Amino acid sequence: MQTVEYSEQRLFKHFLNWRKANQIGYEGAFGLEKNQQFRSSQTSIEISDCMTKTIGIRHEDKYLMERRAAITPAHVKKLLESGLKVIAEHSDKRVFTEEEYLQAGATIAENLRQADVIVGVKEIPEHHFEQGKTYLFFSHVVKGQPYNMPMLKAMMDKGCNLIDYEKIENEEGKRLIFFGRFAGLAGAINSLWSLGQRLKVKGVDTPFSNLKQTHRYSSLAEARAAVSEAGLQIARQGLPDELSPLVIGITGDGNVARGAHEILNLLPGIELTPAQLLATKPGDLPRNVVVKVIFREQDLSRPKDTDTEFELQHYYRNPQLYENHFEQYIPHLSLLLNCMYWDARYPRIVTKDFLEKLYSAGSPKLQVIGDITCDPDGSVECTHKGTPIDDPVFVYNPFTRKYTMGFKGDGLLVMAVDILPSELPREASMSFGDALLPYLPAIAKTDFAQPLDKLGLPSAIRKALILHQGKLTPEYAYIEEHIRKHT
């Protein structure tokens, strides 16, 4: 039980929200008659447990095959135990059925008008936002992404609160709630499948030819078993000449990269450093293993000043003083898994100009790029867009600089699915919800009508609060410039 001071206007707003959440008329609320007026000036009320806050689970509508949910039926049960209500928006495609949510104690509704806090995964259409409500989702606005500035502006116009999962971090700046591992898992499986299909089109059969796209497996366990079987074939029979030695490069060392390593570790392999890769003759490498090479920041970029040594923190603070150092390794790779963080301040690792030069020298060893990071026109410049699950790959022609969807065509195959975790929707949702769950009661019970410094949110959540009452919080004020430019 807590006592809060409310003005007449704020009291009436809370009264209406409470009435809607409990689906009762004016007559039943606080013992007031339908036409009874609230007293003016300051009014003190006690908020008891009867004022139950409601969390709404969105139906994901950005992508046809987006089947994840930020809150699973198992999490619903725990939220109810903490005194909250849960509404799941009607969805025919969500990986968890409506019956599962009903059995857990949630209600199903055609919309989330009765919810105080709305929890989703991907971006939300501009017309879906409701006045003054709190939203949690991956907004993709912190880099000033032009395509999402109209959405952010719509939220500001509606006085919304926005918490972005991407910015929920601990004191050391490490993300606490993420799908990254599952992007790495699905991205590595898809990339090996893509390699097998690309070579099949060229008439080359490999142990990867029988793999399937990740979402076609019934579970992660089944997918892992299929990759393990391919690994057994490699160990027993070796790889064909056209693919031997198979050298797989991995950029990044975060959650995405760790997920990718989980899959690659199912294959027989050896690991080389980037320097060892350059010094080793292809004929010296065995045919019955996969060669894995991990590329870190110092392998990707170097100081423009040749008299300066690479220093990691200096690189983070001054990326404009660095240039590409990765191109020397690309001719030695068969498959590149791009798992790194990137933004426009940093040098690209694969440019269109370099690919044209590489292909001008003849057919290169590089067959496939699995751009798991998937920043369009970003670190891998030829990734011109994120691809949908049902049309996941394209061939980039370095000479015409045009793209052909599918596995056929001249050039480099790119796999760039931008919702990779949704290819493992059940496991990914359960893991994500486990991380999010501890924060939800505090978020739901926060009075966002209070000033920013009085909210009392957990510090990790406060860091991720991009909008408060429709205004950019101080940490994200820089986004205002991007909003003006792109709306």
What is the makeup of the main sheet?
8 strands, mixed
The general outline is globular
Enumerate the spans where pLDDT stays under 50 for 5 or more consecutive residues. 1-50
Domain count: the total is 2
Query: In whole angstroms, how far apart are the ends?
Result: 44 Å
* CATH fold-level name of the largest domain: Rossmann fold
Give the overall pLDDT as a whole number.
90
Share of residues in strands: 15-25%
Find the CATH superfamily of the largest domain.
NAD(P)-binding Rossmann-like Domain
Notes on the structure:
This protein has helices at residues 8-22, 73-81, 98-104, 149-157, 180-201, 220-237, 255-264, 274-279, 297-300, 312-317, 352-360, 425-436, 440-444, 459-463, 479-486; strands at residues 2-7, 42-47, 54-57, 85-89, 107-109, 117-119, 134-137, 161-164, 246-251, 269-272, 290-295, 301-303, 322-324, 335-338, 368-371, 393-397, 402-405, 412-415, 465-468, 471-472. It is α/β, with parallel strands linked by helices and 487 residues long. It folds into 2 domains: 52-168 and 426-486, Rossmann fold (3-Layer(aba) Sandwich), CATH 3.40.50.720; 180-423, NAD(P)-binding Rossmann-like Domain (Rossmann fold, 3-Layer(aba) Sandwich). The strands form 4 sheets. It has an 8-stranded mixed beta sheet. α2 packs parallel to α3 and α5 (180-201) crosses α7. The longest helix is centred in the middle third of the chain and has 22 residues, at 180-201. The chain is globular and about 70 Å long.
